[in-house]
Design goal:
This protein is an alpha/beta fold. It has 12 helices and 11 strands. The chain has 2 domains: 199 residues, 3-Layer(aba) Sandwich (D-Maltodextrin-Binding Protein, domain 2); 96 residues, D-Maltodextrin-Binding Protein, domain 2, CATH 3.40.190. Strands 8-7-9-6-10 form a 5-stranded mixed sheet.
């Protein structure tokens, strides 16, 4: 479960109030400067598929912007009118807006959003099918549909430098067992007590580290400390494009400590029809974690525009 995607509640009510004023309850407003319109309806006949007016939102980080642009593009190709509200904010802003009808569709993360909805009740697991089923149960009373999860996932992971991996022949997390007592673990300050961080490594893998260094949640401090040898093992996120850029090696979670966090479209029931489901599910099926890593590198490391990155990938993969 991604530790850095929980956001701060702070200004939630104020932001949602602004959203309510800015958006119609159907989410089809065209007042946003990011509004784009799909195919012309001038040739519509009685037998033409229903076209929806859909507002897609993203969280305020690059990967979510890429995904939201992908959703926008494939839905437009299917003839829908799409409004994009990118960088909307943290989950504490986005989810109330989705439930309230100010937005219609969000690229979500299976395990993280389930634990958000259930207030960290521990329902998410390493079983994708079971976790998606529980997520659908949580969203159903809110009139929100959970579509097919993608093979692409973005979850907690632990990495080492390539030099360390080569020296100690490390490929999976359990390989750390003979070495952990001489290693320093790095991660966010809360890592020592978190069940998916240091506490989980000790409980699930029996790993006790020599020391812990408080850094950030999979960010530049952790990756730089790994690359420079200031720590031996660090918490990262599996789809981070900066991992390869720093020459780091992600260890396989062979005992399944982490919950699944596959990407999944969640959409309001009144915006779902067969064409919308087909467009989004086809996209989800084609997207892999490896592809997501490369896309994230283009945006986060190379500073490419998320909308251009999304469109290029969709075109290359026959979706546009």
């Amino acid at each position: 479960m991604r530790l850095h995607r929980k956001g701060v509640i702070g200004a939630t009510l104020a932001v949602v109030a602004i959203l309510a004023a800015a958006c119609s309850s159907g989410g089809g407003t065209k007042t946003s400067t990011n509004t784009t319109t799909g195919a012309s309806a001038s040739a519509t006949t009685a037998t033409t598929a229903v076209h929806e007016s859909i507002t897609v939102a993203s969280f305020n980080f690059g990967e979510s912007e890429i995904l939201a642009n992908m959703y926008k593009d494939v839905l437009q190709k299917a003839g829908n009118t799409v409004t994009l509200r990118d960088k909307l904010g943290a989950r504490e802003v986005v989810e109330p807006a989705l439930q309230g009808g100010q937005i219609d569709l969000v690229p979500e993360y299976v395990g993280t959003v389930l634990e958000f909805l259930n207030k960290n009740a521990g329902e998410a697991s390493s079983d994708l099918t079971a976790t998606v089923s529980k997520l659908r149960d949580r969203f159903s009373p809110l009139n929100i549909t959970v579509l097919d999860p993608s093979p692409a996932a973005d979850q907690n992971a632990f990495a080492v430098s390539k030099a360390t991996a080569d020296k100690d022949q490390l490929k999976k997390t359990s390989d750390l067992a003979p070495f952990a007592s001489k290693m320093t673990l790095g991660g966010p300050p809360e890592c020592p007590t978190r069940p998916f961080c240091q506490a989980g490594l000790q409980k699930t893998y029996g790993l006790t580290f020599k020391d812990f260094k408080a850094l950030d949640a999979g960010g530049p401090l952790t990756k730089t400390a790994l690359a420079n040898g200031q720590i031996d093992v660090g918490l990262v996120f599996s789809s981070d494009g900066g991992i390869a850029d720093k020459g780091l090696v992600v260890l396989d979670d062979d005992k399944h400590l982490q919950t699944v966090d596959n990407i999944v479209p969640v959409i309001r029931n009144d915006k779902v029809n067969d064409a919308v489901k087909t467009a989004l599910n086809t996209l989800s099926a084609k997207l892999t974690t490896d592809a997501l890593v490369q896309l994230n590198k283009m945006v986060d490391v190379d500073k490419a525009d998320p909308s251009a990155v999304a469109m290029t990938w969709l075109t290359q993969n026959g979706l546009l």
